[in-house]
Amino acid sequence: MLEQPPLSLYVHVPWCIRKCPYCDFNSHAVKSDIPEQAYVDALCQDFELEAARLGQSSSGISSIFIGGGTPSLLSAAAYERLLSHIDAVFGLESAAEITLEANPGTAEAKRFLEYRAAGINRLSIGVQSFNEAHLKTLGRIHSGNDARRAIEYCTAAGFDNFNLDLMHGLPGQTEDEALDDIETALNFEPPHLSWYQLTIEPNTEFFSKPPALPAEGLLDTIHQRGQQLLESRGYGRYEVSAFCQPGRESRHNLNYWLFGDYLGIGAGAHGKLTQPDNNLILRTRKKKQPDHYLASQLLRTAESTEVAPEDRALEFLLNGLRLVNGFSIQEFETRTGVTFSQIGKRVEYLASLELLNVNNGRVRATEHGYRVLNSLLEEFIE
């Protein structure tokens, strides 16, 4: 039986100082002043329309993630107005996790203090690397010292919950350089660390002009040694590229990975909404171009599609099996509306190959299954 999962909110800010050559997100280099007032007005109206879709009682929004682009280009006053509106229209849970992505190149001590006062209680700082040469290759606008200062501003502003984003497998990166980045990050004792491999995505500068990436053997060594280093310093891996101190998992990301609901507002934002009474799961996408989004008023949704019942199992598994602890059978059934028996034989087969483990009502990938996760997931594609 399909049930209402927890509700999160994703807010997209589409502007950045400069488009990075590896970035495939909906981001647009700033060419003039950002229309902050008009954009917050649009976000507030967008949220009202999204909240009206829900049509059921709720304890409020459990988490908010403000991503981009570069959300730290907007003022604290903009976010204070947006968060107040969200709370007034729909409600925020008292312990809601509210994350803002911050670029070290736009970090200011005063602005971080103001973000904290505005109600943002978690920062995600896009460090990527502390190495000057690699930052230049990645097209980042900050230096290694800028990254260090941004983290210091973060902690000085009272953020005791924050994430650092690091990338590995960079063009020309050595094993020692990749591990040095981790060591530097760990010196700041971040509660959460996202450590992921650079991938070349379509519609990026790197895709049209591919850089020379480290060989597969070196990538494997970096990954293995990096994971060992993180675990030796008390950081548990709970998702493919997410590590944290005990109990410091990202609530927003966990809801996403376990097929929870999230409203999406802002240019190009995606959302997912469950309607148990109608046995529907809907995915939405907003208009991508900031000018189109701002001008559209009541017609900002570019696409709204149903996740067909026959597609729900795979969509759930694509995210649920990324988690080290996997998922419960109850979560699978209540969030997809699909009985576990529909994938039971396939799960049993993969368990016989020691790729999956089924125990006490939970399904997770084994250590070997985790290493070949993409191949494992292909087994569920009809």
How are the SSEs placed, and which strands pair?
Layout: E1 7-13, E2 15-16, E3 28-29, H1 36-54, E4 61-68, H2 76-89, E5 92-102, H3 109-118, E6 122-128, H4 132-137, H5 144-156, E7 162-168, H6 175-186, E8 192-197, H7 205-208, H8 216-232, E9 236-239, E10 242-244, H9 251-257, E11 261-265, E12 270-275, E13 280-286, H10 290-295, E14 301-306, H11 309-320, E15 327-328, H12 329-336, H13 341-352, E16 356-359, E17 362-365, H14 367-371, H15 373-378
Parallel strand pairs: 1-4, 1-11, 2-3, 4-5, 5-6, 6-7, 7-8
Antiparallel strand pairs: 8-10, 9-10, 12-13, 13-14, 15-17, 16-17
Helix pairs in contact: 1-2, 2-3, 3-5, 6-8
- Provide the domain count: 2
**What's the number of extended β-strand segments?**
17
Largest sheet: 9 strands, mixed
Mean pLDDT: 95
CATH class of the largest domain: Alpha Beta
Features:
382 residues; alpha/beta; TIM Barrel; Arc Repressor Mutant, subunit A; 2 domains; 9-stranded mixed beta sheet; 15 helices
Commentary on this structure:
It is a single chain. The chain has 2 domains: 7-255, Aldolase class I (TIM Barrel, Alpha-Beta Barrel); 321-382, Arc Repressor Mutant, subunit A, CATH 1.10.10. The chain is 40% helix and 24% strand. The protein contains 15 helices and 17 strands. The protein has helices at residues 36-54, 76-89, 109-118, 132-137, 144-156, 175-186, 205-208, 216-232, 251-257, 290-295, 309-320, 329-336, 341-352, 367-371, 373-378; strands spanning 7-13, 15-16, 28-29, 61-68, 92-102, 122-128, 162-168, 192-197, 236-239, 242-244, 261-265, 270-275, 280-286, 301-306, 327-328, 356-359, 362-365. Strand 16 and strand 17 (362-365) form a beta hairpin. Helix 6 (175-186) runs parallel beside helix 8 (216-232). The protein is globular. It starts with 6 loop residues before the first strand and ends with a helix.
